[in-house]
Amino acid sequence: MSTIRLLKLGQVALSAKVETPGFVTGLEALKIASSRGDRTATRMLGKVMTRHQISMASNGPKRIESRLRYEAMRGASSSVLAVAGMYDRGDGVPVDTRKAAEWYLWAARVGNRRAMANVAYAYGTGRGVERNEEAALKWLEEVNPGRRRMTLVDIGWALVNGSEGSVDMPAALRFFERAAQISPNVAYQVALDLERGTKGAQNREAAGHLIKVAAERGDSAAATHLANMLAGSDKPEDQRQAVQWYGLAAQDKENSAAGQGLSRLLALRPNSDLVPSIVAGLEKAAAAGNHEALIGLAQAYSEGRGVEASPERAASLLQRAADAGIPEAKYRLGLMYKSGIGVGMDLSKAIELMSSAQESGFPLAAVALSSMIDQSSTSSVPEQAAPKAEEGGTAVK
């Protein structure tokens, strides 16, 4: 097969997914063309190797390395990076982290951003160079946010587990906090792994710190987690903070747990000084579209807690939540229609709502529905007519 044809096949390997037929065929085509001395094929092979970290150990790595070195000397940064990867992984050559770091630095200095991330990892963990946190962060400045975040997390875990020789939790937390500036959710996921010990190390204190960092950066799941931890405390200050975190988290309309948390706090009848803050949080959450918060707010209006009592307003809020499919709202609104509080009494409507709540799995709906059906059956039986007096006679009294 001609070299031109091989290069066309090899081009597919640059964009195809690993292990697909096109990728496998393209990679083999590049190896053949490179072995013929084609420089374009060698450069393309270097790109594929660095992009997918392909092992070349069974394909004459010494010869490949020499060809990649040749292209590297002529300015092909991907070839430089490919050689660095071979030394880093021990791909057909002995593992040599110092040499790998030198090659990564070479590629980084000519502008290869993938290499910059590798250099940052080396400085952050001490892999092949002396640890230097400032240098690690500097090399990450020009790396795209996604790769920067991933590298920061990788450095952090290496320092947590000592996989590169150094264990340094304070430094690890600093790298994780940097990642949180890019994506708060990443810090929260790291915190969960540290809390559960799912990545080889368990540290609940560090986990708690990162949960707070993620919450402060705006991650609603982290804020809910933090609120859940504080809500179980007997300390007034912890309770106050729980209300604040639930309130912030519940402004994410998709965070039903936060809306439920605020409503639950109100149902537990907290100290009167917390009620205004809870109601304010429910108001903001409801305005943001958090349907679970509507239930707690309806309870406040129903009982006159923190607001002027208004059964009508409570029913209106429950109707909004019921329209959104919230089973508890259907249950509560059904009770209001049964009793005629805040709405006109309508047993048929009450049964309809309660049936829907039961179908959605709300546990209290079945009993309530049974009593409603019994009431409906009783009220539908006509009263027995009084016996008529026989014609010409007197009715029996």
UniProtKB/TrEMBL annotation:
Residues 375-397 are annotated as: Disordered. InterPro entries: Sel1-like, Sel1_AlgK, TPR-like_helical_dom_sf. It comes from Microvirga makkahensis. It comes from the Bacteria. This is TPR repeat.
